Amino acid sequence: MHITEGVAPASVAAAGALLTAGGVAMGLRAMKDEQIPRAALMSAAIFAASLVIRLPLGPSSVHPVLNGLAGLLLGWAAVPAFLVALFLEALLFQFGGITTLGLNTITMAAPAVVCYAIFNRPLRRCRQKNTAFLLGMAAGVTALLLSFALWAAVLVLSGKSLIVIVKLALIPHLAITAMEGLFTGFVVSFLFKVYPGVFDLPLTREGGVAP
Amino acid sequence: MSCTTHFAGHTVIHRLDPRPRIVATLLFAVFIALDNPYPVLATGLGVGIVLAMLARLPARPLARRLLHINLFMALLFLTLPTTTPGEPAFSIFSLPFSRVGLHLAAMITLKANAIVLAFTALLGTVELSALGHALQHLRVPDRLIHLFLFTLRYLDVIHHAYEDLLRAMKARGFRPRMDLHTYRSYGSLMAMLLVRSLERAERVMDAMKCRGFKGRFLTYRPFDFHRRDAVFCLVATIVLCLCASLRWALPGGPQ
Q1: Under a CB-based contact definition with an 8 Å cutoff, are residues A107 and A143 in contact?
Q2: What is the pLDDT of residues A123-135, one digit of tens each?
Q3: What number is the ipTM of this complex?
């Protein structure tokens, strides 16, 4: 799902970097200084889990992406969180890359923010575990479908002929999306039971619930 | 086991100040990512290889990294020439490989390898927390730096918490299979990891408040700009200028 170094031409990469800079500015403004450790620890948990958890799928297994979950829990702060996580991934494992960092951040974080906008409020109002599961599942699926759309858009903008890569990735990606939906649903319904109020956390800046 | 390690060493590259290294890497990467004629890309790849050799990057991890990106490049070489319309360069089993497609795949491969080599040699060799502080010196917003340093600091801690939880599950007979029970269990594991990280964040914040945290980390590693750093800046500037003049001088370059 990462956009590899060298694929995107300078104009596309620059556009991605600009959008990311804007999103990061929004995200940093939405955080208070006291909230930084919390945002960092949650993003570390999400980042670590997306690297080590393998969900068995047929003869193979898939890693969860968790950007829908990140959006629900972090709101706009998901943008700087993904920037940091993707920078670390580029440094440590060479997933993605330095010139495509902006593009990769946008493909991951923009869907997270969209999920926050759509699903956070219903989730806070929701009173039933099954509804929470469904909302979580919807967030996971939405985030991955949007990510795929953005990823495909970046590839096609980088070169029309790269659409062949998009076509190759479509079916596996749909499988991953289904898994992600289930997984996010289970995480959200567990958090709903065990840690009520966790979905209020992105709001503290706007005078919501105290930390 | 720690997953947040850099390529440690004591070479010339390792001893350089991280700040000019960051700037040089960014400039080099952005320049290479532009549309360049082949000689410029070949020079860039050469620069990357020289840097990797100077930094004495360990062969095996470096090979793994390069393999990782070049598998994707192999996919490009297989798909792009056969699907891009255009004059065929050659054909295998009456499947034409177009010149345009080959050109595109070759460009991307050269760019990617040049950037990855330079990036790994110059930035992969900086200790990660030092990298955070260097970025702070380069006017990256403080909050972003804090986010980076905290994430880095707790990544291993959280990985350990994950292993603890997984061990507890395995001790109770958990075997990953392809069924809802497995997914639900992994979901609970993930959620529990989040709960624990939130609790830890509370404790971290309390501890920091006790110690009078004022929104800025102090570093015990002040950066020194030595003569060798000045030399590095000079060499980097010359290399970049040479590449740039090569790019505009060559017939294939921009008009």
Answers
A1: no
A2: 999 989 999 999 9
A3: 0.90
Q: How far apart are CA B199 and CA A149, in angstroms?
A: 36
| Nearest to A180, CA basis, from A78, A72, A64 | A64
Tokens of B73: 């490049």
CA-to-CA separations, B154 to A88, B151, B161, B211, in angstroms, rounded: 13, 5, 10, 19
Cβ neighbours of B148 in A, within 8 Å: 84, 87-88
Percent of chain B as helix, strand, coil, to the nearest 5: 70, 5, 25
Q: How many CA atoms lie within 13 A of B127 on its CB side?
A: 11
* CA B139 – CA A153 distance, rounded (Å): 32
Question: Per-residue pLDDT tens for A138-183?
Answer: 999 999 999 999 999 999 998 888 888 899 899 999 999 999 999 9
Cα–Cα dist B79/B70, whole Å? 14
What pLDDT, in 10s, does the model give residues B21-80? Answer: 999 999 999 899 887 888 899 999 999 999 999 999 998 989 988 998 899 899 888 888
Whether the pLDDT of residue A122 is over 90: the answer is yes
For B91, the token pair is 């054909």
Residues ≥6 apart with Cβ < 8 Å to B113: A6, B45, B48, B66, B69, B70
3-class DSSP assignment, residue A94: coil
Domain locations along chain A: 10-197
pLDDT recorded at residue A81: 94
Contact A5 B116 (CB under 8 A): yes
Most A CBs within 10 Å, among B27, B197, B211, to test the A interface: B197
Give alpha helix (H) positions in B34-98.
38-54, 59-83
Q: Does A80 touch chain B (CB under 8 A)?
A: yes
Residues in chain B closer than 8 A to A66 (CB atoms): 190
For an interface test with B, give the residue of A98, A133, A156 to mutate (most B CBs within 10 A): A98
B204: left (phi over 0), alpha (psi -120 to 50) or beta: alpha
Overall CATH class of domain A10-197? mainly alpha
